[in-house]
Design a protein that fits this description.
The protein is α+β, with helices and mostly antiparallel strands. It is built from 6 helices and 18 strands. The two termini are 30 Å apart. The chain binds pyridoxal-5'-phosphate and 2-OXO-4-methylpentanoic acid.
Length: 345
């Protein structure tokens, strides 16, 4: 086994790299089976599987970090397990037991240890769990059988500019999810729903679309791949909405903001309030905290300039460093967020 000396760890994009193994588990006859270790990159699927026709596909995203002490840490892994269960329940799928999820995450990281980016490179090992309905059906009904797979890939920053502020765009003609729809779960179809708007925005130099709430089109919802937060007069404000994904990163940043003495408000945020914010960012596992320089309303032409000097704001910068310091074992894990892969619970 080589040590992957040919991987340029510090310049990895956010993309797929083939690793050694993935882990799989199948739900049949009302129960989850044994964990299988596979070295195949493909899945053998019936052409009538419900995931292909009726969208029974959910996923997660979390990271493993090599720490300053050489240990490998998972971040709030049980929260991802719980969210996958919520997504499964939302799509009438079989929920994966929390312990099985955590066990598989530890396994897949250990099995691919040589792909964990070294400490100090800024990169990490991204873990991608997916669950799909595999029963062949033509009538619209949930599957009886499900496949749960976890694979990993070493990644760098989600946005190629890293921590440099980028612009985001608003379009009223596209929603990523419906009111009371699937936006609150991590469902593949939500991302498909956002692709056209996102590709349009990217072609114009924007990093992402900032979606408005699909019911009133008055309040900020979230970005295509991440939640949104802003800093307004020393208060951390973030949208409260039924159509956004409950982000584990956002929840963590709220706690870190409180630790820093900031007030936190989770409430509907009218678009116009962007006039009064001093900082804004996209936040998520992949995005971490990616500062926003400007929000452009593509329908009215109005531009909300947030970082006129093109530099990340002080609060976002502090939050970004505090979060990463915990993930990389540089700061005490006072909220008990990390799990060391080699240590038992
Ligand atoms: N919102 C969307 C649409 C996402 O895809 C993600 C990424 O997982 C997030 C928010 C952030 O969630 P988390 O911080 O749990 O990764
Ligand atoms: C994540 O942050 O883990 C995500 O799933 C976002 C993704 C769309 C890249």
């Amino acid at each position: 086994m080589d040590n992957n000396n040919n991987i340029d760890w510090a310049h990895l994009p956010f993309g797929y790299v083939k690793t050694d193994y993935n882990v799989r588990c199948t739900y049949r006859d009302g129960k989850w089976g044994e964990i299988e270790v596979s070295d195949s990159e493909t899945i053998d699927l019936h052409m009538a599987a419900t995931c292909l026709h009726y969208g029974q596909e959910i996923f997660e995203g979390q990271k493993a970090f090599r720490g300053v002490d050489g240990k490998v840490r998972l971040f709030r892994i049980k929260e991802n397990a719980r969210r996958l269960r919520a997504s499964a329940t939302g799509l009438a799928m079989a929920p994966v037991p929390e312990e099985l999820f955590v066990k598989m995450a530890r396994m897949v990281v250990k099995l691919n240890e040589r792909f964990i980016p070294p400490y100090g490179t800024g990169s990490s090992l991204y873990i991608r769990p997916i669950e799909i309905g595999i029963t062949p059906r033509v009538g619209v009904r949930p599957a009886d059988e499900y496949l749960f797979v976890m694979f990993v890939t070493p990644v760098g920053p989600y946005f190629k500019d890293g921590f440099k502020p980028t612009k985001v765009a608003i379009y009223r003609e596209y929603d990523r999810a419906a009111p009371c729809g699937t936006g609150r779960w991590k469902v593949g179809g939500n991302y498909a729903g956002g692709l056209v708007a996102t590709e349009r925005a990217k072609a114009l130099g924007y990093s992402a679309v900032l979606f408005l709430d699909p019911k009133h089109k008055q309040y900020l919802d979230e970005c295509g791949p991440a939640n949104f937060f802003a800093i307004k007069d020393g208060v951390y404000i973030t949208p409260k909405s039924d159509s956004i994904l409950p982000s584990i990163t956002n929840d963590s940043l709220q706690q870190l903001a409180r630790d820093m003495g900031l007030k936190v408000e989770c409430r509907p945020i009218p678009l116009e309030e962007l006039e009064d914010v001093q900082e804004a960012a996209e936040c998520g596992t992949a995005a971490v905290a990616a500062p926003i320089s400007e929000v452009d309303d593509m329908d009215t032409g109005k531009r909300y300039v947030i970082a006129a000097d093109g530099r990340p704001g002080p609060v976002t910068t502090e939050l970004y460093h505090r979060l990463q310091a915990i993930q990389r074992g540089e700061a005490p894990d006072i909220h008990n967020w990390t799990t060391v892969v080699d240590e038992c619970d």
